[in-house]
Amino acid sequence: MSSIVAETVINSIQNYSTEPESKIKKTPHSWFEEGPVEEVEMFFLSLVEHTLRLPPHLLSLPLPEAIRGELEKLFVDKVIAQLGLCISVYDIKSIKGGFIFAGDGASTYTVDFRLIMFRPFEGEILSGKVDASDANGLRLSVGFFKDIFVPVHLLPNPSKFSADGRWTWMYGDVELTIEQDDEIRFRVHKIAYPPIPLEQEKDSKAFAPMVITASIDFDGLGPISWWV
User: Fold this and answer.
1) What is the dihedral of CA 8, 11, 13, 17, to 10 degrees?
2) In this structure, are residues 44 and 10 in contact, taking their beta carbons and an 8 Å threshold?
3) CB–CB of 124/188 below 8 Å?
4) d(CA 60, CA 219)
5) Per-residue confidence of the chain (228 residues) as pLDDT tens digits?
6) Residues 228, 219: Cα–Cα separation, whole Å
7) Residue 152, SS3?
8) What is the spatial distance between Cα 210 and Cα 84, in angstroms, rounded to a whole number?
9) Between the CA of residue 19 and those of 49, 82, 172, what are the distances in Å?
10) Are the beta carbons of 125 and 117 closer than 8 angstroms?
11) The predicted structure's pLDDT at residue 96
12) What pLDDT does 99 receive?
């Protein structure tokens, strides 16, 4: 059982600030509290309160080490709807409890800790690489996250798709082609958290719990080589 107690923006995972006003979000095991921030970046520190069951075989380890390992299994590389992708457990603020319930050899703790979350805001400019392209547009990657899509209508206009699988911007008499692995600058257009499907066809694409729609249809956006 866990909850976000507070959320703050961090700049390059170093500078962060908090404000007293908050907005509460609840889940069956967690509660999340988001605070307003003075500056916006794509990484956030979220303070979480979580009720953690610690298996008996971990009790031989130092308590902070054992708890951190379990928290990393639970949260790292997981998407929390509306909060983003968890990158890392930043630190542990407090550990309380240690109760052992009847019929259970595990001990239960209430842990306050902070997570580093990836959640860019709409309109933010990011840099990544071209991961793939097809007739529907581009798929981009920032290394640790690859579910970034540039649909056709958010490509530079006019653009054409060639038989060799590449998109080209027709800039007057100049053809500017987007290549695989090009370093690319893009704007975050929208972030979506699709509901988990009850059933999934065998040959369908892997489910993505967080999807970023991006655009490159503005001056300075697109492959960096276009603008240098």
Assistant:
1) -30
2) yes
3) yes
4) 58
5) 666 655 665 543 333 323 333 333 444 344 454 433 333 468 989 999 999 999 999 989 999 999 999 999 999 999 998 889 999 999 999 999 988 887 788 899 999 999 999 999 999 999 999 999 999 999 999 999 999 999 999 999 999 999 999 999 999 999 999 999 999 999 999 999 998 887 777 777 788 999 999 999 999 999 999 998
6) 12
7) helix
8) 7
9) 18, 19, 50
10) no
11) 94
12) 86
Distance CA 171, CA 157 (A): 8
Question: Any idea which residue has 């610690």 for tokens?
Answer: 54
pLDDT value, residue 15: 31
Rg (CA), the chain: 22
Q: What are phi and psi of 144, to 5 degrees?
A: -90, -5
CB 213 within 8 A of CB 152: no
Q: How many CB atoms lie within 10 A of CB 8?
A: 19
User: Phi, psi at residue 175, to the nearest 5°?
Assistant: -105, 120
Look up residue 210 and give its two tokens.
């967080």
Nearest Cα residue to 161 out of 151, 172, 169: 169
C-alpha span between 69 and 39 (Å, rounded): 31
- Name the pTM for this structure: 0.79
- Tokens standing for residue 101: 């319930």
Q: Checking DSSP bridges between strand 167-171 and strand 23-26, what pairing results, if any?
A: unpaired
Token pair of 87 as six digits? 């990158």
Strand partners, 191: 212
Is 142:124 a contact under the CB 8 Å cutoff? Answer: no
Look at the alpha carbons of 207, 200, 132, 211 in this order and tell me if their dihedral is positive or negative: negative
